[in-house]
Amino acid sequence: MKEQRICFCLQVKLDRLEEYKARHQAVWPEMLEALRAAGWRNYSLFLRDDGLLIGYLETEDFQAALDAMAKTDVNQRWQAEMAQFFEGQGNPDEQMRPIPHIFHLA
After folding, report:
1. What percentage of the chain carries pLDDT values higher than 90?
2. Which entry of 53, 54, 60, 81 is 20 to 30 Å from 100 by CA?
3. Which one is catalytic: 24, 41, 71, 77?
4. Apex CA 72: angle with CA 64 and CA 100, to 5°?
5. What is the 3-state secondary structure (H, E, C) of 22-58?
6. Between the CA of residue 86 and those of 2, 9, 17, 39, what are the distances in Å?
7. Entry pTM
8. Closest to 101 (Cα-Cα) out of 53, 56, 42, 44
9. Residue 88 reports pLDDT greater than 90
C-alpha cells in the first residue's frame, strides 16, 4: 500500500494553550511506543497562538492506524486526559478528519 501523508486540524481552548504545550514536552513513553507500533511515522503537531492545532503524520493506512490506537489502554487514558484541552465533544482522536492532500515536492 502507498504511504499516506495525513494532515488534520483541531482547536485547542485558548485558556489551555500553555498546559497543552507542556503536556507534549513529556508525552508518556508507552504512548510514543503505541503510536509507533500502530504505524504512525513522522508525527508532528503545530500550534498557533489562536489555538489552531495542525497535525501531520505518515502511515500506510490512516484508518487502520487510528483503529490500532483505539484498541490500546494507553490511548484511552491519553485521550481521556487530552479531551479537556479541545473545543468540541469527544476524544480528540475521534475528531481527526484528514485534509485532502493535493501537492508534494519530493
Report:
1. 89
2. 81
3. 24
4. 30
5. HHCCCCCHHHHHHHHHCCCEEEEEEECCCCEEEEEEE
6. 31, 11, 10, 24
7. 0.91
8. 56
9. no
Residue 24 among the catalytic residues = yes
Residue 104's SS3 state is: coil
Instruction: Write out pLDDT tens, residues 52-66.
Output: 999 999 999 999 999
pLDDT in tens, 16-53: 999 999 999 999 999 999 999 999 999 999 999 999 99
- Domain residue spans of the chain: 4-95
Find all residues with CB under 8 Å of 71, minimum gap 6, and list them: none
Cell of 44: 508532528
Q: Which class does domain 4-95 fall in?
A: alpha beta
Q: Is 72 helix (H, G, I), strand (E, B) or coil?
A: coil
Please give the Cα distance from 48 to 25 (Å, whole number): 16
